Amino acid sequence: MQSRLKFFKVLGINIVILGILAGIMRRYPLTDKVYYLFLLVLLLMLFVNIFRYNHLKISEGNMFSITVAVSSLVFMIIFSMDQLESVAKRYLIVYILIIYLYFSFLRYGLDYTIKFYKQLTYLLNTFSVLNLYQVFFHKPLLINYMELIDLGYNYHFGSFAYRTMSVFNHPIVCGLFFVIAFLCNIFVLKSPMKYFFQILLILNIYTTYARSAWLALAVIMIVYAVLNHKKILLLLVRPKITYTSLFTFCLITPTLFIFMIFNFEVIYAGIVERFGDSLSFNSSDGSNLQRTMTISLIWSYMFDNGGYNLFFGYGAGTVTEFMLKHPLLLKGFATTDNQYVTLFYEFGLIGIFFYIYVIFFITFKYFKNKNKHWAIDLSFLCLLVVSFELLFFEAWPVVLVILAFLISVLTFQFKKINTEQD
């Protein structure tokens, strides 16, 4: 175990980055066991840290957060005794990673978060560049290794209707991480190449045809503008002009303008066609109908049966069996396509209100702290994106990894934050 730890340290790869890669590999049959290997290694590393660094002083606030994390895990296990395999496969990663990261923050402080975001930025921009293969050829680069979805989804390989997904095996998950990459570039990248990567990400987000990602990007940029309106106004009044930035602006702006002139109708028509009447209360869109019918079904089922299960749910992983027994628009469709609905069914009102409490606690803590580091700002914006996107799909392992990281950063009380720290 010590040699394994030294290897990661020498290699310089953040453990959360390894978790993201393991989460991606979980969706490929050839490498799906890597995820469980990562989970085992992370658990062993957590025990090593507990015994090795038990001398570290933990503040009352951080001790409270650790206690809440452990208590919620115990709660999940107790009320899912018949579904422990589902707990281990799906939710265990969240709690182990959060507790592990608390110890990492105790040792390294905010520097640990900064290094993670730098590595994540490079990784996601690499995935964005690789996605160009799918933009041009309309098929995944790793098509021969994918676990294809055979129900409720059409890949449209080789046609312009194909939705790009980079290495994530699903366009919605891909769109989510590319929106996160867009935010990371704003805070992390300093060179003029940032603008190239941003334009590339917008192109890739568009070609996922993931409406949730389009909305998430639009909403989060409005939130970013509101939170940073003073800084943005100052840059508009007193722009910092360098020869490099001027050259980049003169190169990119005309190119982008010409591209939009020749492709505006195609892009506009694609967006209108993709949304259709999906934003209407009387939407006839298939995926929207499936989601709204699922919400109505589970809402009615939970309140009609009431009692114990209304408050504590039916246990981890049980929603899959429920959906198969209650087919709706898509026969044999085993997912709710909404993580909040899944939480409600599996863990009842207590489970769903607990997550909502965590989000409100983080939001209150965020706005209460006036002296925030950019890594905290970035984490908060990313958490909003993930929380919004979970309305449209059940969280995959790779999403749970990034969610665990964001929650741990935003609930941890760092000793002293230097807002000028790079």
Written overview of the protein:
The chain is mostly helical and 422 residues long. The protein has helices at 2-11, 15-25, 33-52, 60-78, 84-108, 111-130, 132-137, 171-188, 193-207, 211-227, 229-237, 243-275, 286-305, 307-312, 318-325, 339-368, 374-389, 397-411. The radius of gyration is 22 Å and the shape is globular. Residues 1-11 have low confidence and may be disordered.
Could you report the average pLDDT, rounded to the nearest whole number? Answer: 85
From N to C, what is the helix and strand string?
Answer: HHHHHHHHHHHHHHHHHH
Our count of helices gives 18
* Spatial shape: globular
Index terms:
422 residues; mainly alpha; 18 helices; globular; disordered N terminus
Which helices and strands appear, and what pairs or packs with what?
Layout: H1 2-11, H2 15-25, H3 33-52, H4 60-78, H5 84-108, H6 111-130, H7 132-137, H8 171-188, H9 193-207, H10 211-227, H11 229-237, H12 243-275, H13 286-305, H14 307-312, H15 318-325, H16 339-368, H17 374-389, H18 397-411
